[in-house]
């Protein structure tokens, strides 16, 4: 029944009971039973002409998710310091399985226009945040990504050879940051750093985002130092 919720995305904002039955390969009575129970729980709502959309309880659950997020609980003061010091937007990004999601954005003095935001899945191999998160993977974990998403990573311009692919992310890990220039959105640059766990994995990534036109005047070394120091401070508080 909870699989019904996975049927909604940017191209399918509403579904009918018939859609649900066909997608889940269940009978129509079973589909209607699922819909009825999800309506009662507030996880679906009826919108029009027997179409159903995700329900208001999800908004409430998102509120609780934000309040429980350990990175935001300890990191918000540091993130706000970072924004005040640079004037740039700061974005927190998490990796959930292999799904990249922005979880928070603190806006700077001239907020960037972002195509992605909280809850909208981002590409796995484009932009600074996903790359610093992938750089924290162990060799076996990274190889699984390489094998399962090979076509996608090649299209993103990453090395098609495993050895080169591994070296690429080892270099990012060693640097402790990544600077992307127009990778995800052509008008934007980002400097990202991972918030590391004690076991070498990552809680999340933080990125400073700004217009690529600023690259000619920005002290990039200073921005890198600020973002990596902030990530280290947040990681220290989480530890």
From TrEMBL:
Domain of life: Bacteria
Keywords, ordered alphabetically: Transcription, Transcription regulation
Residues covered by the IclR-ED domain: 57-239
InterPro entries registered for this protein in UniProt: GAF-like_dom_sf, HTH_MetabolicPath_Reg, Tscrpt_reg_IclR_C, WH-like_DNA-bd_sf, WH_DNA-bd_sf
Gene3D superfamilies in UniProt: 3.30.450.40, Winged helix-like DNA-binding domain superfamily/Winged helix DNA-binding domain
Listed name of the protein: IclR family transcriptional regulator
Source species of the chain: Variovorax defluvii
């Amino acid at each position: 029944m909870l699989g019904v919720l996975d049927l909604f995305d940017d191209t399918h904002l509403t579904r009918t009971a018939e859609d649900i039955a066909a997608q889940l390969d269940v009978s129509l009575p079973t589909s209607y039973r699922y819909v009825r129970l999800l309506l009662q729980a507030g996880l679906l709502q009826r919108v029009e002409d027997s179409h159903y959309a995700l329900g208001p309880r999800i908004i409430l659950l998102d509120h609780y998710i934000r309040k429980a997020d350990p990175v935001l609980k300890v990191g918000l003061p540091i993130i706000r310091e970072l924004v005040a010091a640079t004037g740039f937007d700061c974005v927190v990004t998490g990796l959930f399985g292999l799904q990249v999601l922005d979880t928070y954005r603190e806006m700077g003095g001239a907020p960037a226009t972002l195509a992605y935001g909280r809850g909208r899945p981002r590409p796995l191999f484009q932009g600074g945040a996903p790359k610093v998160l992938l750089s924290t993977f162990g060799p076996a974990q990274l190889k699984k990504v390489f094998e399962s998403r090979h076509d996608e990573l090649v299209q993103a311009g990453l090395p098609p050879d495993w050895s080169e692919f591994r070296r690429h992310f080892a270099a990012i890990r060693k640097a402790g940051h990544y600077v992307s220039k127009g990778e995800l959105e052509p008008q934007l640059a980002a400097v990202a750093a991972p918030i590391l766990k004690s076991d070498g994995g990552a809680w999340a990534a933080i990125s400073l985002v700004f217009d690529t036109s600023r690259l000619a005047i920005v002290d990039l070394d200073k921005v890198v130092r600020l973002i990596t120091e902030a990530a280290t401070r947040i990681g220290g508080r989480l530890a």
